[in-house]
């Protein structure tokens, strides 16, 4: 899924980038919601925009869509400067948007909502999308579950066959099966040439689906790397319940960091392959294992330090 | 690019039908009581000096024209319909911003100016529905009472009322783009239109303060003059229309510059 990333190492030129942020800054009083954020998203890639809740992801997206005005700096979307309202409005004909909070006309049925967006933008791909994502079209949106709202949102974001789709926490509310379906769909779209800007606070999701990732924290871009680099830095949050006490020197391997071994419980972050960890664990009398994704904050602490200035 | 106009028009339909039904019933009630107050009205007009009646805006109350112009229109049209237009317009932008519906709309290739204009354009629904329903009710009611009224004058009283209602809508629209909370915007718009109506009425009671009323929109719409004297104040209507356009211009200029 990330085979194309190597070619993108070189800094791209302004003409080719689908999205280019240049010192984009948004300040609310003393709070820097976005602090001089700069990066570029290339055509035909899935760009992950990763950060904990409140990091400033949605602010960036709303700046890109012209819903907010930058305090300083700027950005281009499909070649249009976001400070040029007319140019940006024209460019939006080729942009799809899936917001985190989906504001639909609640009394309308899903079908009527899609009719509205079809008149607003066109709907070349509506039927095709409705075979993959099936919200109950004849029911009013106010009766929808989170998952159904999200599916309706996905359909409206892609139905006019845009060149760029900006998605803000697209899988929230979707069950794992539909998350997988969305991930596969996004990969197909990417292969067909669509550029996807994928904002998320879930590390594993970004690792799974994105080609490159920008990590934002407290309004600042703290890392910009390919998914391979992120995978190298990533780790699993592991908790092991043992039947009896073990010798720490034997139990702890070099791939384990931040180990807490208290009584018969071990907690650590595992930076190696999961299969190797399981092979290691079967040597012990284990009663329970819990392997999960680390909290983003943990990842930041380990790999970027508490001071986000370290990495630019 | 009329998707917003269409959707917004549909959205206004339900409220419009409710209000139209309400105002039709209310007007019918007024007409029902007309014969019984007709005699009292004549007496009233004999007892009170001419200038007091003029100041109250009450003329020829014992005639159907005076009754329509002095009773039904000031209440049903100027106050109730005016408040409705201010209230509805105050929710138009603020509610969409609040519910993030505006984000989705503006992620399309549509300018903010166009959004405002299409939304305010959807007011054709209540304008047409209210005018036609009330016109029909009054024509029917008047003929049932065995009275007659100049249909041209009755049509004009509706037509010249449109700019007045649009000014009320303009007031609502300005609050809708400036205030973030839907309820606050609606309460402010409704309150202001009510206060303006009150100020106009009170100012007319006192000759020393009558000038205060010149800033109220209802001063430029006089149903009694239209119905009783068949005086069509086109200039006043034009002035109201100009004020409406200025209010829409201000609201749009503010809306395209603000953060959402």
The whole-angstrom Rg of chain A is 22 Å
Encode the helix/strand succession of chain A as letters: EEEHEEHEHHHEHEHEEHEHEEHEH
Percent strand of chain B equals: under 5%
CATH top-level class of the largest domain in chain A = Alpha Beta
Domain module tally of chain A: 2
How many DSSP E strands of chain B? 0
Strand order of the largest sheet of chain A: 6-7-8-3-9-10
Order of helices and strands of chain B: HHHHHHHHHHH
Provide the low-confidence segments of chain B as ranges: none
- Stretches of chain A where pLDDT is under 50 for at least 5 consecutive residues are 1-14, 307-312
Helix content of chain B: over 70%
Number of helices of chain A: 11
CATH architectural type of the largest domain in chain A = 3-Layer(aba) Sandwich
Helical proportion of chain A, percent range: 25-40%
Mean pLDDT of chain A: 87
Pfam families (chain B): ABC2_membrane_2 (PF12679)
Protein name (chain B): ABC transporter permease
GO molecular function, one term (chain B): ABC-type transporter activity
Keywords (chain B): Membrane, Transmembrane, Transmembrane helix
Give a short summary of the structure.
The complex is a heterodimer of chains A (312) and B (260). By secondary structure, chain A is of the alpha/beta class. Chain A has helices spanning 57-64, 85-91, 110-121, 126-132, 146-158, 176-191, 203-209, 227-233, 248-251, 274-281, 296-304; strands at 19-28, 31-41, 46-50, 72-77, 80-81, 95-98, 164-168, 195-200, 212-217, 220-226, 236-242, 256-262, 265-270, 286-292.
């Amino acid at each position: 899924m990330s085979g194309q990333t190597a070619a993108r190492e070189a800094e791209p030129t302004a003409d080719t980038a689908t999205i280019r942020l240049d010192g984009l800054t948004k300040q609310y009083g003393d709070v820097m919601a976005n602090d001089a954020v700069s990066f570029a998203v290339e055509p035909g890639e899935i760009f992950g925009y990763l950060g904990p809740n409140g990091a400033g992801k949605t602010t960036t997206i709303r700046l890109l869509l012209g819903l907010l005005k930058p305090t300083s700096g700027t950005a281009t979307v499909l070649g249009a400067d976001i400070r040029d309202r007319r140019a940006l409005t024209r460019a939006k004909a080729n942009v799809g948007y899936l917001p985190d909070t989906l504001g639909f006309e609640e009394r309308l049925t899903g079908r009527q909502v899609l009719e509205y967006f079809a008149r607003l933008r066109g709907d070349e791909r509506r039927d095709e999308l409705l075979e993959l994502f099936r919200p109950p079209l004849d029911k009013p949106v106010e009766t929808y579950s989170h998952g159904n709202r999200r599916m309706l949102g996905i359909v409206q974001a892609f139905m006019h066959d845009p060149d760029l789709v900006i998605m803000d926490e697209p899988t929230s509310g979707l069950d794992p099966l539909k998350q997988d379906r969305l991930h596969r769909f996004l990969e197909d779209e990417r292969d067909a040439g669509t550029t996807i800007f994928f904002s998320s606070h879930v590390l594993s999701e970004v690792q799974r689906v994105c080609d490159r990732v920008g990590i934002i924290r407290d309004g600042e871009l703290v890392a910009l790397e390919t998914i391979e680099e992120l995978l190298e830095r990533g780790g699993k949050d592991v908790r092991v319940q043992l039947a009896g006490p073990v010798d720490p020197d034997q139990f702890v391997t070099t791939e384990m960091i931040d180990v807490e071994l208290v009584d018969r419980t071990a907690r650590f972050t595992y930076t190696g392959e999961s299969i190797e960890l399981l092979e290691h664990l079967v040597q012990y009398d284990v009663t329970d294992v819990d392997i999960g994704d680390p909290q983003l904050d943990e990842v930041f602490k380990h790999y970027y330090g508490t001071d986000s200035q370290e990495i630019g | 690019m009329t998707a917003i106009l269409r959707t917004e028009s549909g959205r206004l339909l339900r409220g419009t039908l409710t209000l139209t039904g309400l105002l039709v019933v209310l007007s019918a009630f007024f007409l029902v009581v007309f014969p019984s107050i007709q005699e009292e009205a004549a007496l009233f007009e004999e007892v009170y000096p001419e200038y007091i009646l003029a100041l109250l805006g009450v003329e020829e109350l014992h005639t159907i024209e005076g009754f329509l112009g002095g009773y039904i229109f000031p209440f049903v049209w100027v106050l109730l319909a005016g408040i409705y237009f201010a209230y509805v317009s105050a929710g138009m932008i603020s509610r969409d911003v609040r519910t993030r519906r505006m984000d989705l709309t503006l992620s399309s290739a549509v300018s903010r100016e166009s959004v405002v204009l299409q939304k305010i354009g959807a007011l054709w629904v209540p304008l047409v529905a209210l005018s036609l329903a009330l016109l029909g009710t009054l024509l029917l009611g008047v003929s049932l009472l065995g009275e007659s009224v100049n249909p041209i004058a009755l049509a004009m009283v509706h037509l010249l009322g449109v700019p007045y209602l649009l000014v009320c809508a303009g007031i609502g629209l300005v609050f809708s783009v400036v205030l973030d909370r839907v309820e606050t915007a609606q309460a402010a718009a409704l309150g202001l239109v009510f206060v303006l109506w009150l100020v106009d009425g009170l100012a007319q009671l006192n000759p020393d303060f009558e000038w205060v009323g010149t800033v109220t929109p209802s001063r430029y719409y006089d149903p009694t003059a239209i119905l009783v004297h068949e005086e069509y104040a086109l200039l006043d209507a034009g002035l109201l229309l100009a004020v409406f356009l200025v209010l829409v211009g201000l609201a749009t200029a503010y809306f395209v510059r603000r953060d959402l």
